[in-house]
Amino acid sequence: MALTDKQRPSARARGYTHRWDKARATYLRSHPLCVMCEREGRVTAATVVDHIVPHRGDQRLFWDVENNWQSLCKSHHDSAKQREERGRTQAVGEDGWPV
């Protein structure tokens, strides 16, 4: 069962500390483009480092740079990725609209 916003610990309490900020910046310098946009044939700067598999506090998953991080634009992170995690994936056409 998902936590409500009031029950969810703060970002810092979930591990998004100064160490994360530095690692995130380094990762985005090395992986500057949104992987979902690239799959759609578009070039968009990434602004979010996403955990492919939600870590839910598991530090091994949280820090697994090689296998569990991907660069996303905010739009994909806040929409398509969230639908994936909730099990509601939806195909997207070449024009970027759901099909």
Task: Walk across the major sheet and give the strand order.
Answer: 1-2
Strand content: 5-15%
The rounded Rg comes to 14 Å
The main β sheet shows up as: 2 strands, antiparallel
Structure classification: mainly alpha
Helix count from the secondary structure assignment: 6
The overall pLDDT average reads 83
Q: What is the helix fraction of residues, given as a range? A: 25-40%
Low-confidence residue ranges: 95-99
Principal-axis shape equals globular
| Measured distance between first and last alpha carbons | 30 Å
Order of helices and strands: HHEHHEHH
Number of strands: 2
Summed up:
This protein has 99 residues and is mainly alpha-helical. It is built from six helices and two strands.
